[in-house]
Structures are given as C-alpha cells and as structure tokens.
Design brief:
Layout lengths: L1 H10 L3 H16 L1 H15 L2 H22 L2 H29 L5 H13 L2 H21 L7 H21 L18 H14 L1 H30 L4 H25 L5 H21 L3 H29 L2 H33 L2 E5 L2 E5 L1 H24 L7 H10 L10 E6 L6 H14 L4 E5 L5 H11 L8 H25 L3 E5 L2 H11 L4 H11 L7 E6 L2 H4 L14 H17 L4 E5 L4 H26 L1
Parallel strand pairs: 3-5, 3-6, 4-5, 6-7
Antiparallel strand pairs: 1-2
Helix pairs in contact: 1-2, 1-5, 1-8, 2-5, 3-5, 3-14, 4-5, 4-8, 5-14, 6-11, 6-13, 7-8, 9-10, 9-14, 10-11, 10-12, 10-13, 10-14, 10-15, 11-13, 12-13, 12-15, 14-15, 17-24, 18-19, 19-21, 20-21, 20-23
C-alpha cells in the first residue's frame, strides 16, 4: 500500500504515468524471484541463518527509511528490487529455521500461525494505512508548520516493523548456530542449485508437494486475474468485484487456520492431494453458475481448499526435507509460486480475451459462453489433474479406502481420560531408552511423594507374562500377523483392567513402557495389516483409555538396534520394518499434538529425563487442583 501510493505520488504527470508507476512497483516485486530465487536458496543454506534473518531485517529497515530521504521514483523502483532480493533470502531461511524451533508435532500449528498472519495481514494493514494517512492529514491541518507527508509516515512505519523484527530475532538464541550445510559438504553455487532441483525432481513426495503448492496458487491466481472481467459478465460492478476478491482471501485464511483441524486424525499426505483436487473442482461451478452470490460462495470454498493444501504442503515440506536442503527447497517453491502467479495473472486475462464471447444455440435454447468462464474450466481441469497426480504420488495408505479414512477422522472420538491419577506412556522403537527413562521418572516422582506404578507392555501381569513369552520368544517362530495383533490386544485388556485402572482410581501416577501406540506402530505400520482395524482392536481392548501424556523417544532404527544384544523376535525384524515403525510413531505424534511430545533420543539420558520432568510437572499440578476441588 505504501509503496504503490508513494510511486503514484512520485510519478506526477497524468493518469497514465501514475498507473505505469504503480504497475512498475508491482512487477518489480515479482521479477527478482526469477533471477535471484535459486541463488537465494543457496545462500539460505550456506549462511548462518540467525544472522541472515537479523541482517536481512536491518537491511530492509535501512532501505525503507531511505525512500523519503532520496525522494525520487527511480529510487522507489531500486528499493523495491533490493527489498525483494533480501526477502528472497530471508524467507527460505525463516521457513527452514522454523522446523528446528518447534517440536515435530507442533510444526503444523507454527506454520498455520505464520501463514495466517502473513495472508491475514491485508485487512489490518489497510486499516493502519488509513489511520496513518488520516492522522497525519489532521496534524497538517492543525499545525501547518509540522505537516509531513502521510505516505512518508507509512513508509517509516514499515521500516520500523523490520527493525522490531530484527531485534526480536536477535533474542532467539535457540536458532541453531552456523549454516545448515557443513563446511566439508559444501560445493559450488551451480552444483548446489542443480542438486536442489534434482532432489525435488527425484523425490516423489517432494515433487508432488511442490507441484501441488504451485497448482494451488495457480488456481487462486486465475480467480484473481479474471475476477473483474467475470463480475462484469455477471452484471456486477466494483462492490461485487471487491466481494469476490475478498472471498478468495477469506477462504484462503480460513483454510490455513481451520482446514487441518477439521480432519485432525487424517493422513496429511492424503489431505494435501484431496484439498488440491477440491480447489480444482470448485473452479467448475465458478465458471458455470451465473449468479454472483453463489460464485462468491464457491470462491470461498476454493480458497479454503487452496489454503488447506498450502498449509499442509508447507508443513510436509518441513518434515520431509532434511535441514541441509530445506532452504533451497523453500526458495525453489517460493520462486515457482511467484513465477506461476505472475504468468497466471498475465496469461489468464489474455487467454480469456482471445477466446472471447460465444453463443451456443440448441433448438430454442441459447447459451452464452465467455472467455473468463472457459478459462476457469480449463484451469479447473489442470488443477484437478495436478491434485489427483499429487494424491497418487503421496498416498501413504495404499489399499485403505479413502472413504473409510475420512469417516474415521470425522467420527473418531477423543478417547477416555481418567479424572483421578496421572497416566503417562513412554513410546518409541527399539533401543531408544524407554526403560531407563521410566525408571528415572519413577525415582523423581517418588522423591516428590507420589505413589508411582511403573509398568510395561507386554507382560506385566501373570497372564501377560505368558503372552509375552509367545510374542517375543524367537523360538515361537513365525506367527500370523492377525494372531500376533490379537495376542497383544489380550495383553492390553488384562493390563488395563487389572493394573492400570485400579492404580489410577486410587490417584497413583502410572508410567507405562509401551501402550496402544506401540500396537498401532508395530502391527499397523510395520505389518501388512489394516491400521483402522488395528486401532479399533487396540482401543476396544483398553476401553479407549488414553494417557494424559505420551512421550515418544525418537531415534533412527539403525542406531537403536545397536544398543542391545540378543534380539527378541520383533527386534530381529529387518531394518525396513523398524523404519516403518518409526514413521508410524511419528505420524501418531502429528495426529495427537495436544497429548504427545517427541524427544530426540540421541541426547544424554539426563537431558531427556529433565525434558520429561518439565512435561510431567503441569500434569501433576493439574491433578492436585482436581483433587482439591473434589475434596
């Protein structure tokens, strides 16, 4: 708002000069991505990210402050290019840093907050810009000698926001020091860029994500580019155009904020493909329905689907791409998004104009087909094909019917949490240190005067001990996977009914080494069993009793499997089995961020124990509060 207003005022002259100046600013905001984008990704990965973020904000502060000082139109153009160049490095550095600052299961929430405030800032920005301009005009009328340009005030306000951002980031010492790429792994700029592109091209999941994110923006760009023309063809004017334009961003913001929450337990990879496909399908009624009110409704749905795809894709990129490649990948995505958006905004109106208006007569009926509607239909086909392709590339639950996944995520209840006692489960693959941490936690709790029941699965009941011998003894040999799952379910039922529930009923703290999620990870993800059926069985066997806190100790299986001798029947499974188990645990953590915590099991036992105590302390305080209320 400030830059375009400043450019229009600085252009002087007539109507055409002002429009060209404003168009120049908007164009120069997009063009740097084409040239600088790939290099920006290299810099984001090879520079110290904390200092990149701080220096980037300070540079943008100085550039904005210089605009009213130099006070010429050409300098506005120069500053626009330079600010965009700095932003192209700053943004991937920021996006690549966020996954290092928040737990894996909180990354989606962090991205939601970041993107919702980014795209939701348009309305408050417009309000602040209006207040600044009105305020400075009022000061000018009251104190003529103190009169200043209202646009200058807005420019300086922009500059100060960058300065504040830089100061805040300077206080974030949790940002990892140094570049993401180690010195011994560094190669030339061109090689790095090519490697980054090759990684996107050769990795099906990342390729599907990039294509999908770009497609989501392309679908939104078509609506923005053709909105004014389409509104006119529907006999609407400027107010209707404003409503349609706002509908895109309303849906986009709502999708980013609410989309993933509506299907909390649903596979994020599947959700991404479905959201993108839905965005394409929503373009069909936008093209065919001749009612501006209904069109606005479908545009909101289109934006909602696009926003859901965008936030889900961004989160998956943060999870799927290793840290050393993350900056380049985000830079590549942002460059492609800007390039596609620029092409769509230019090409959609041009294609609509070339197609023109046509009348199809069928008997006594006549149908008007205009260029905007046909362009919408073509974009709908393209976006839908991209959505289906992304879904097929990324489907992590082949063989599981989609409708069943959707039904379970919509109808699945939150489970049962006891009002007495505290229930804590330690989960993870082989060799992660669950037994050590459960013992350390028990000692700490007893020192604080709590009754503690430390237990484990399978086998911590007389019946369970016999079942444990069957499922873990290598002498048992091959078992039917269904038999194995049923034996574990029987152990859980006995464990919960005879040990866990009575302890919680008397107010004890129960710490269990493995619980339901081990079944979901080992038998659901590791074996070739239907995970929905496994979850139903495990939840039924435990009466759907949920831990107040589940701590996942996360460690690559090729490390964990070296931490013990004499493997049992499950520990003897091949490495690929244990990798599937690990991914199963991590997916569960993403589905249940409210009650899950993921800790890096490669840290020292003391560090992990301290982190667990920090997570347990609020639960103990809450339990004491409930006990006092009941008393």
């Amino acid at each position: 708002l400030a830059l375009t207003a400043y450019a229009g005022a600085a252009a002087g002259g007539g109507y055409a000069a002002q429009n060209f100046a404003i168009a120049g600013v908007l164009l120069l905001r997009v063009l740097p991505a084409i040239v600088i984008g790939p290099i920006a990704g290299y810099l984001a990965d090879h520079l110290d990210r904390r200092w990149t973020l701080i220096v980037g904000d300070v540079l943008r502060f100085g550039l904005f402050v210089s605009i009213p000082v130099v006070d010429t139109l050409w300098w506005v153009f120069v500053v626009t290019v330079l600010v965009e160049a700095v932003s192209l490095v700053w943004l991937p550095a920021k996006d690549a840093t966020v996954p290092n600052l928040v737990p894996r299961e909180r990354l989606e929430a962090a991205n939601q907050l970041s993107l919702a405030t980014t795209y939701g800032s348009a309305l408050p920005a417009a309000g602040i810009f209006t207040l600044l301009t009105l305020g400075t005009q009022g000061v000018g009328e009251l104190f003529g000698d103190l009169a200043v340009s209202s646009i200058d005030v807005a420019i300086v306000a922009n500059a100060l926001t960058y300065l504040v951002s830089g100061v805040v980031i300077a206080t974030l010492h949790e940002i990892p020091k140094g570049p993401a790429v180690a010195a011994h792994d560094r190669v030339g700029v061109w090689r790095t860029i090519v490697d980054g592109w090759a990684f996107v091209k050769d990795t099906p999941v990342v390729r599907g994500l990039v294509l999908g994110i770009v497609g989501a923006f392309g679908a939104g760009g078509v609506v923005i580019g053709l909105a004014r023309v389409h509104v006119s063809e529907l006999d609407g004017g400027d107010p209707e155009y404003g409503v349609l334009f706002g509908s895109v961003f309303l849906g986009l913001s709502a999708g980013m904020w609410l989309g993933p929450r509506l299907l909390r337990g649903f596979s994020r990879r599947r959700l991404f493909g479905i959201a993108l496909t839905s965005a394409g399908l929503m373009l069909v009624p936008v093209a065919l329905v001749p009612n501006i009110t209904l069109v606005a409704f479908f545009v909101v749905l289109l934006g909602f689907a696009g926003g859901t795809a965008w936030i889900t894709g961004y989160t998956l990129l943060g999870l799927e791409v290793e840290d050393a490649l993350r900056g380049r990948t985000f830079a590549f995505v942002q460059s492609m998004v800007r390039l596609v958006l620029a092409l769509v905004l230019a090409a959609a109106p041009a294609l609509s104009g070339v197609i023109g208006t046509h009348v199809l007569e069928v008997g006594t009926w006549s149908f008007d087909y205009n260029g905007a509607a046909i362009t919408f239909l073509l974009a709908a086909v393209l976006a839908t094909v991209m959505g289906v392709s992304a879904y097929r590339h990324m489907d992590d639950r082949p063989g599981v019917p989609l409708w069943r996944d959707l039904r379970q995520s919509v109808s699945g209840g939150p489970g049962v949490f006891t009002e007495t006692g505290v229930f804590i489960a330690l989960e993870g693959g082989e060799g992660v240190g669950k037994s050590t941490q459960s013992r350390l936690l028990e000692d700490w709790l007893r020192e604080r005067g709590h009754e503690v029941v430390r237990t484990f699965e399978p086998g911590d009941t007389p019946v369970g001990a016999k079942l444990r011998d069957i499922v873990l003894d290598p002498a048992t040999g091959e078992l039917s996977h269904r038999t194995e799952a049923l034996l574990y379910a029987a152990d859980k039922a006995e464990h919960v009914d005879t040990l866990i529930k009575p302890a919680l009923a008397r107010g004890a703290v129960v710490v269990t080494d493995r619980y339901v999620d081990s079944t979901l990870a080992y038998q659901g993800a590791g074996r070739d069993l239907d995970r929905d059926e496994i979850e139903h069985l495990a939840r039924w066997s435990t009466g759907d009793l949920r831990p107040h806190l589940t701590v996942l100790l996360d460690l690559p299986p090729d490390v964990g499997l070296t931490r013990f001798d004499g493997p049992d029947r499950l520990e003897s499974e091949p490495l690929e089995f244990h990798r599937r188990v690990r991914e199963g645990f991590r997916e569960l953590a993403e589905r249940q961020p409210e009650t899950y915590a993921v800790l890096d099991a490669s840290r020292s036992p003391e560090e992990i124990a301290a982190a667990i105590r920090g997570l347990v302390e609020p639960l103990l305080a809450k339990a004491r509060s409930v006990h006092r209320q009941q008393a």
